[in-house]
Amino acid sequence: MTQAATAEKKNPAKKTVAKAVNSLDVSDHQATVGKNFADNAKMTMRNVNVFYDDKQAIHDVSVDIAKNEVIAMIGPSGCGKSTFLRSLNRMNDTVDICRVEGQICMDGEDLYSPKLDVVELRARVGMVFQKPNPFPKSIYENVAYGPKIHGLADTRVDLDEIVENSLRKAGLWEEVKERLHQAGTGLSGGQQQRLCIARAIAVSPEVILMDEPCSALDPIATAKIEELIEELSQNFTIAIVTHSMQQAARVSHRTAYFHLGRLIEVNPTEQVFTMPEHQLTEAYITGRFG
Amino acid sequence: MTESVNNLDKIKQSLSRRNRAEKRFRWYGRLAIFIGLAAVMVLFTDIISKGHGAFRITYIELEVTYDQDRIGVENLTDPEQLANGNWEALSKAALRNEFNDVSGRRDKRKLYGLISSGAGFDLKDRLLANPLLLGETEKVWILADDDIDTYYKSWLDGESYAARMSAKQLQWIDELHAQGKIRLQFNSNLFTRGDSREPEQAGIRGAVMGSLLTLILTLLLSFPIGVSAAIYLEEFAPRNRWTDFIEVNINNLAAVPSIIFGLLGLAIFINFFHIPRSVPIVGGLVLTLMTLPTIIITSRAAIKSVPPSIREAALGMGASKYQVVLHHVLPLSLPGMLTGAIIGMAQALGESAPLLMIGMVAFIVDIPAGFSDPATVLPVQIFLWADSPERAFIEKTSAAIMVLLSFLIIMNTVAVWLRKRLERRW
């Protein structure tokens, strides 16, 4: 008698889940369940497909991101959540073989229209990466870089103010104000990530994308970042990809569950974690796979 | 139970075999390093033992009277009179004065042969530097002839080489030595003069200047071109068949024998564009062709070593591709590029074959002052001297090799130091 069969006897639900997972592999379309559209949408995505060469990574995703909300994107590894996030500020442009279809709009403006300059877009949609990646420059220079290249500060005093405000908002000012001109790479991992957040908000973006911002950090540093996300949501719209369901539950207002390149369910976070609509979501959050 | 004991025995047996193999392997490594070091030691000892003598040269002290009539010059400011002046008469008179018993044409010729044929011009320079000397008498250390120099040095070392000396000359030198009127001095001529047919007057200044001018041009051309090509290929060019083709060809170019570049330079720069032969411009262009692949390859490696996360961070901030390169990739890869450039330059400095093809092997006495003056370079100078029949050129050749090697060692040290100094960690 195999182990799988024993497990099935103990837990009959597993069989249906496995079936559902398998059926997803072959079915071509399955509509997203839940409330994937919002009234006060900041960004609207309609029928988005992303391909790497001829391999499709994102299938027909339609979802809204509301103003000043924190939306968490969860799902098992390789489900396309990072790919989807990176098409929101066209970071996928840097990958030669990557192709995005469908419509992605911010405030009604098509982000993939040829008229739009990607430089302007990335000033409006900031990004924080998985691994803290401060420039090998001073803390000050790291934060001042964005305002400098976009010409946001006319004088040195203005720039100083932007740097201080950004560091304050990122909760890093008190820790680094004495050593602004030391290397940003000399900070601890958590501090580096907050520095990257300060760097992103220094250009006052409207949306901040975070790609697993805490996966390289210890629990204490993670707690600080999560606290920060909550504060930032008062001024910014935030989309965060995370591996940790607990994190999604703690920081987000809405949660989107991705599975094998499809958006399965979008609902208010509380609902997703208490009574998910889709059985795949339920299977994932209760830890039956993933 | 017995089985596991058996296994343990087997492991123990194989363990001692493995340990022996490791020990042997380490000794192979040590042997290889020893052979390498020994080769370097032999090379250096040989060059230094042959060349150290060239840094000192024999001078003879004579009492010189700056006799206006003898020179035949009335006005020291008239260039024409100076050029026609009989300056050799001064040194000859001084020699006759020292050995006043010498008579007969043959003996006199041997006597005049004690000192360098350029001695008269050295006295002229002395007088022009201090015109008050005219009509006065002073004791001057005068450069000896190369045969005298070779003999005197070998005699001081205890194994005298007198093959090219007459009996009279040997006797005169004994006399001079007894009176303390012959001695070895630091050979400043080696560093201040250009090439000469007379070994005692030959120096490497011309070749060093030629190398310097050629290298400056090579650096000015190959570094910007190489770095631009590397940046374009790494950061901007799409990956397709064309860029693959270019990459393969750059790697091929790096492996082309250098003399082929010389032929190319001869055909294109001299025969087609009619740039004069033997000048640093052509040398620099040819060495640029030769160094470009090295610089492109090392620069690309340096650019590749910049972590992609830095690029992503800058792109995510809304930096344009150009800004990403200028603000981040270039500063971070510059140490690697500089190291590559210095190593490429060191290669170019040691190169002689392609320069032979474009006429930089000519015998050039004047020290080049510009990019369009005929010049030769250090390695070619070494080649020329090694080819010369005079015995005194043997030590000169080794001395020039020492100078070339010290330049190379300095450049490589700077490369290592730069890399250590500018390297950033992230």
Commentary on this structure:
The complex is a heterodimer of chains A (290) and B (426). In chain A, 39% of the residues lie in helices and 24% in strands. Chain A is α/β, with parallel strands linked by helices and 290 residues long. In chain A, the strands form two sheets. In chain A, strands 1-11-10-4-9-8-7 form a seven-stranded mixed β-sheet, sandwiched between helices. In chain A, strand 5 and strand 6 form a beta hairpin. In chain A, helix 5 crosses helix 6 and helix 8 packs parallel to helix 9. The radius of gyration of chain A is 20 Å and the shape is globular. Chain A starts with a helix and ends in a 5-residue tail after the last helix. Chain B has three domains: 51 residues; 141 residues, no CATH class; 218 residues, MetI-like (MetI-like fold). Chain B contains 18 helices and three strands. A three-stranded antiparallel β-sheet of chain B has the order 2-1-3. In chain B, helix 10 crosses helix 17. The model of chain B has no long low-confidence stretch (mean pLDDT 91). At the A-B interface, helix 4, helix 5 and helix 8 of A face helix 14 and helix 15 of B.
Quick synopsis:
The complex is a heterodimer of chains A (290) and B (426). Chain A is of the alpha/beta class. Chain A is built from twelve helices and eleven strands.
Report the helical percentage of chain A. 25-40%
Please state the CA-atom Rg of chain B, rounded to the nearest Å. Answer: 31 Å
Give the overall average pLDDT of chain A: 86
Low-pLDDT sequence parts of chain A: 1-14, 22-29
